[in-house]
Amino acid sequence: DDELVRAVDRIMSHADARRRLQVRANADNAEDAARARRFGAQGIGLCRTEHMFLGERRQLVEDLVLASSDEERERALAALEPLQRADFTEIFQAMAGLPVTIRLIDPPLHEFLPDYTELAVKVALAGDAAEEKDRRLLAAVKRLHEQNPMLGLRGVRLGLVIPGLFAMQVRAIADAAAAVPGARAEIMIPLVGAVQELEHVRDEARRILAEAGVEALVGTMIEVPRAALTAGQIAEAAEFFSFGTNDLTQMTWGFSRDDVEAAFFSKYLELGVFGVSPFETLDRDGVGRLVALAAEEGRRTRPDLKLGICGEHGGDPASVHFCHQVGLDYVSCSPFRIPVARLEAARAALVCAGSDTR
Ligand code: PEP
Ligand code: MG
């Protein structure tokens, strides 16, 4: 067994010596970060901060979103900030000076709100006896209720609409980074489709970072088709791009990523519209063209623009190969897929150095 382990280690170190693509992990807590490092991650490419607000903390986000006064909102933010500072401190410690890309909160809002239909039924059934508290809650939830939450108040939109939310997160990141020697924070803004959205958030983030005396890159996800199409403009305000190919695939095809098992998918496989689900392997002809275009136009604006991918495709061999070909700097995937990504990155470098056979 020892011999086998040594052989695997040898293969991996040969692969690492040959690949150009860096391999990072998607990790949201210190435990995943530690696991990612054991698998050889060179950083965290996506820390989804909305995952930090599940369980007991969910109520605080609900309080924040439904706050009816500045005081209520500030109280919720003040309760969240130390929790976030502790989250980020642990992750920076676990990554020991490797880069950590922290994405500001991007929840589909309904996950944090009481169920609208359930609440409406409860109030309706109670009639005149309905509690005042429930009536007020229903009115607040109704205001935010959306038919398509995945196309609604998510990502950067949430940050622009709820005062103080992104600022709280950036302050927590800055304070945590200041407290952990060598910490390398990269702040990532989700769901951007226009440079103006990014400029607002970036300016505020820069101000907070400067106040804390902390340096951090500020960049964006490219996951809305419009962001890819206007990448040249967006690169004016971003120090890095990370392709969110889950959303980019959903929005380019117009398929819901939450219904990938939808009835027509098996029909499409049978008809050869695609050989594999485009949510598993990057669709080169469509989504891939948007990635290539954004990479090229982004770098034309900003030659040192750092480019990565953090959608599920970052751990899929055929997609990793494509990422090498279009010149990305890194792929980021679930910790368990890191070894495969390292091997494929090396294979892509070797194959592409000759002629590409794929
Ligand atoms: C993506 O859209 O590809 C992505 C990484 O973000 P999320 O899956 O969290 O929407
Ligand atoms: Mg996304």
TrEMBL record:
Keywords from the named record: ATP-binding, Kinase, Magnesium, Metal-binding, Nucleotide-binding, Pyruvate, Transferase
List of residues binding substrate: R48, R103, E223, G244, T245, N246, D247
Keyword Cell inner membrane belongs to the record: no
Residue ranges that the Swiss-Prot or TrEMBL entry lists as coiled coil: none
Entry superkingdom: Bacteria
Binding site for Mg(2+): E223, D247
GO molecular-function terms, A-Z: ATP binding; kinase activity; metal ion binding; pyruvate, phosphate dikinase activity
Domain PEP-utilising enzyme C-terminal stretches: 8-348
Active-site feature positions: C310 (proton donor)
Membrane-crossing segments per the record: none
Family: Belongs to the PEP-utilizing enzyme family.
Name this protein carries in UniProt: Pyruvate, phosphate dikinase
Species per Swiss-Prot/TrEMBL record: Streptosporangium becharense
Interval of the full protein contained in this chain: 523 to 880 of 880
